[in-house]
UniProtKB/TrEMBL annotation:
Residues 1-75 form the 2Fe-2S ferredoxin-type domain. SMART domains: Molybdop_Fe4S4. This is NADH-ubiquinone oxidoreductase 75 kDa subunit, mitochondrial. GO terms for molecular function: 4 iron, 4 sulfur cluster binding; metal ion binding; NADH dehydrogenase (ubiquinone) activity; NADH dehydrogenase activity. It comes from Geodia barretti (Barrett's horny sponge). Residues 219-275 form the 4Fe-4S Mo/W bis-MGD-type domain. InterPro entries: 2Fe-2S_ferredoxin-like_sf (IPR036010), 2Fe-2S_ferredoxin-type (IPR001041), 4Fe4S_Fe-S-bd (IPR017896), 4Fe4S_Fe_S_CS (IPR017900), Mopterin_OxRdtase (IPR006656), Mopterin_OxRdtase_4Fe-4S_dom (IPR006963), MopterinOxRdtase_cofactor_BS (IPR027467), NADH_UbQ_OxRdtase_75kDa_su_CS (IPR000283). Residues 135-168, 178-207 form the 4Fe-4S ferredoxin-type domain. One of its GO terms (cellular component) is membrane. One of its GO terms (biological process) is ATP synthesis coupled electron transport. CDD domains: fer2. It holds the Pfam family Fer4_Nqo3. Its cofactor is [2Fe-2S] cluster. The lineage of its organism: Eukaryota, Metazoa, Porifera, Demospongiae, Heteroscleromorpha.
Length: 352
């Protein structure tokens, strides 16, 4: 097939968009997520197909031998700009904090690329916010563009079907069963809907607490592995001034491909919590805990292990590693039990 005058190869079943992306052709999308079945709703990915009466959606059109495709003609780019103007005109705002979610700035980036100012088309705003008591997910549907990525990722990737679509046209809304609270639905608070939303209509409530603190600063990203279980999900830790302000799943993570559970997505407050111990505590003869040096604390712990082992045998000692500790700490913990005491009495708190 031919794309923009260049002959390219394709595999059976591939779409025009997939082939174009593989050959580094920029085709804008808003409703597209490579992990989901193509939807063709936003129409931003339209291209000219020789022999076709009208432009076609590249995300849903399968490639065939001899196709001749043009991805960025003046007419196509004008269509895209008009579509973006209509989308932007319905939203309360387009510029949102990057802490809202992984894809939250996609609409803003396209608006800037096509120099859409949002003033040529005006009118009523669609969408209504949902006041939800859950601590994790903000549902700001005044920013929703009905791309349905949240609905589709919940159904196709998670299999939860916790959210769906109600009404049609301008009155389309994303909703739960009987339009109730998210916490009363089948939602597992994995956060996948947040991370696929291209406008920030769904947002990470916990991360947004730090939005005012960091302002326009772009948080640093550090790739690591979630320690909460043995799956090995890849995550990007967002930090500002050495403080964790949010978590993004790694879309290219080999084990998770953008998916996380509720713990991997939201359970990071303990790292900087005011109750977290900063020095070892050792119980004295008076029965109270007192601050101690690491040397004294480790000597005290070693003495206790030796005493129990001598009096009751190796099977009296059992280790439980913490899912909040790094993976290296879990490895050392099992070595300590298996090599140090010759037993397999070791488990992890997050195994269940």
């Amino acid at each position: 097939m031919e794309i923009d005058g260049v002959e390219v190869a394709f595999s059976e079943g591939e779409t025009i968009l997939e082939v174009a992306q593989r050959h580094e052709k920029e085709i804008p999308t808003l409703c597209y997520d490579p992990r989901l079945e193509p939807f063709g709703g936003c129409r931003l990915c339209i291209v000219e197909l020789e022999g076709a009466r009208n432009p076609v959606a590249s995300c849903t059109t399968k490639t065939t031998e001899g196709m001749v495709v043009r991805t960025a003609t003046d007419t196509i780019e004008a269509y895209r700009k008009t579509l973006l103007e209509m989308v932007v005109s319905e939203n309360r705002e387009v510029d949102v904090s990057p802490l809202r979610g992984y894809a939250a700035s996609e609409l803003a980036d396209l608006r800037d690329k096509y120099a859409v100012n949002g003033t040529r088309m005006t009118g009523a705003k669609s969408g209504a916010n949902k006041t939800d008591e859950n601590p994790f997910i903000l549902r700001d549907y005044e920013l929703c563009i009905s791309c349905y990525r949240c609905v589709r990722v919940c159904a196709e990737q998670e299999g939860d079907h916790a959210i769906n679509v109600m009404n049609r046209g301008f009155h389309t809304q994303i909703t739960t069963e009987f339009d109730g609270l998210l916490k009363d639905s089948a939602c597992t608070f994995c956060g996948q809907c947040i991370q696929t939303c291209p406008t920030g209509a769904l947002a990470d409530k916990k991360a947004l607490r730090a939005a005012d603190e960091i302002g326009d600063a772009i948080p640093d990203k550090t790739r690591t592995i979630c320690p909460y279980c043995g799956v090995g999900c890849s995550v990007d830790i967002l930090t500002q001034d050495e403080k964790i302000v949010g978590i993004h799943p790694a879309m290219d993570g080999p084990a998770n491909q953008g998916a996380l559970c509720v713990k991997g997505q939201f359970a990071y407050d303990f790292v900087h919590h005011s109750d977290r111990l900063k020095t070892p505590l050792v119980r004295g003869d008076d029965g109270d805990l007192h601050e101690a040096t690491w040397e004294d604390a480790l000597d005290k712990a070693a003495e206790g292990f030796r005493k129990v082992n001598a009096e009751h045998g190796r099977h009296s000692i059992y280790g439980i590693a913490s899912g909040r500790a790094p993976s290296e700490a879990a490895y050392m913990m099992q070595k300590f039990i298996r090599v140090g005491f010759g037993t397999n009495y070791i488990d992890n708190c997050s195994r269940a």
